[in-house]
Amino acid sequence: MKAIKGDWVQIQGIVLDVNNRAPQVPEDTKNVPLEIWVKGFAQSNGFIGEEIKIKTITGRLTQGKLVAINPTYTHSFGNFIPELLQIGLQLKEILAGGEQNE
Amino acid sequence: MSNHWSYESVLARKNETMKNSVGIDYRSFESGGIAFDYEKMMRETGYTLEEMKIIQGNHSVGNTPLLELKNLTMVSRKIAQKGFGARIFIKDEACNPSGSFKARRAANAVYHAKKLGYKGVIAATSGNYGAAVASQAAMHGLKCIIVQECYDSKGKGQPEIIEKARKCEAYGAEVVQLSVGPELFYIFLRLLEETGYFNASLYTPFGIAGVETLGYELAMQFREKIGRDPDVVVCTNAGGGNVTGTARGLLKAGAESTQIVGASVNLQGLHMASDNHFNRKSFTTGHTGFGIPFSTWPDRSDVPRSAARPLRYLDRYVTVSQGDVFYMTEALAQIEGLERGPAGNISLAAAFSIAQEIEEDKIVVVQETEYTGAGKHIQPQLSFARDNGIEILFGDPDDEVPGKNIILPSHPRLIKAKNIDLAKLKKSYIKNCLDFSNKTEISSGDADFLVQDTKSSMDFVKNYLEEQGVAIRD
């Protein structure tokens, strides 16, 4: 995949490698680098995985590894959780007088 | 050049960067000891209630509806002892432009930034505050950068935080996303220096004072609606700003007998800076992982002196379980017809339990709701938990182990707000003050400050200082 200059892209980078993590972070976090992701307009053509310069929506210039072109939102309502159905049914039964002061 | 932006150099310039980016010289409120002049700071750098009402009113913030939750009240009365089950009300803060009460904090901060001539604003937040700052920046025509902790080391993002990034971008903000770790602060400082933008911190006097209108409105709405002040106001507590601002607003309205209760969701056992734990929690805010450390040491925030000081105002502090909150979120939709985000319902779960402890003619208020949608909703949050190996089942919420399971109460009577020992938190706060200032003897001014900052008494403070072997110098 190739980004053309001007495309809306996402870049990724390493802010702090494993040797430079803050002393107070727990071990599991210390063992992985601190990473960063930023979106912006590609300032040159480039392939996924290549280092590229971008201009963010606020006009800031920054650079990193190209990871996505036209990065999209994929979050959703997830898989259905059937347990939730029971809550409304139970509450309506209580409201209908199925239970009294105990 | 390479040195200039190194972790050490950027952190070494912290104080200067902060001063430039918030326009407050915090030193002018310091006493040289533990004490600082909190009210002077709020007065000189914040806004009056009247000014805030105008600023917020001009930017579509505030004056949110106060709703009575009659069906939930009825359920609580069926469970409670006869004659108990206070009326439960909720302030529908989701009606604010960005979908939460955080619009109040942002309205002031962004207005202030504009007034001082900053070209943009920056905030470090994974939550509703980012959306609020972005929305207000859009209204004021300022640029906006939001820095959020979003992904674990496998690149897996919390659905709620990803939704927040979308919302910020929808308002035209730049969102800088990071993996887990407190070094987010380094990127935050770097961006402040690089851009010269205003630090729209959650913890400045303008931000906290922005919430005062919420407390004030509550008192006024109740006086108009039922002719008196509410008996109990329950606030979700994380960084302490919600509690602080709401309580201050109630006091400014003269509602001195209203009890202020903080509520956090219990995430005991999960480490907030742990890469492994990051996606094992189903709440990204309102939890004990923020609530406890920020009450016992408020000045850990991103400004030298936090204006959010919850121990100054709290009468009681409770926890609820993740399962309790998810159950109540579903209940709110199913029997009250209000679909609102889960995190804002922490105080609702607590209020449902607290209402059962008091008489029917009393009033308990949940002071916020928040928006809901893809990613930020009980379905995706529970689905995400299940995908991460968290067991979801019905049972007794007392058996819930954060990070291992989410127990939906098998009956609403099992939803019980649990008291946190406030005296213990107050002592822990005093201990932190002593440790950070390295004192073995404190001034009487410091002692007075500690009494005020912990809403305790001189006897309480003196006894604890004695235990610690610290003398008060007159």
Rg of chain B:
21 Å
Mean model confidence by pLDDT of chain B = 95
Low-pLDDT regions of chain B: none
| SSE string of chain A, helices as H and strands as E | EEHEEEEH
Largest interface: A-B, 47 and 69 residues
How many separate helices of chain B? 18
Which architecture of the domain at 2-72 in chain A does the CATH hierarchy give at level 2?
Roll
Amino- and carboxy-terminal Cα gap of chain A: 66 Å
Strand content of chain A: 35-45%
Which shape of chain A, going by the Cα principal axes? Answer: flat
Number of E strands of chain A: 6
Largest sheet of chain A: 4 strands, antiparallel, barrel
Count of DSSP strands of chain B: 15
- Which topology of the domain at 56-98 and 206-419 in chain B does CATH recognise? Rossmann fold
Q: Widest sheet of chain B: strand order?
A: 1-2-10-7-8-9-13
The quaternary structure here is heterodimer
Briefly note the CATH topology name of the domain at 2-72 in chain A. SH3 type barrels
Q: What is the terminal-to-terminal distance of chain B?
A: 51 Å
**Count of individual helical segments of chain A:** 2
Bulk shape of chain B: globular
The CATH class of the domain at 2-72 in chain A turns out to be Mainly Beta
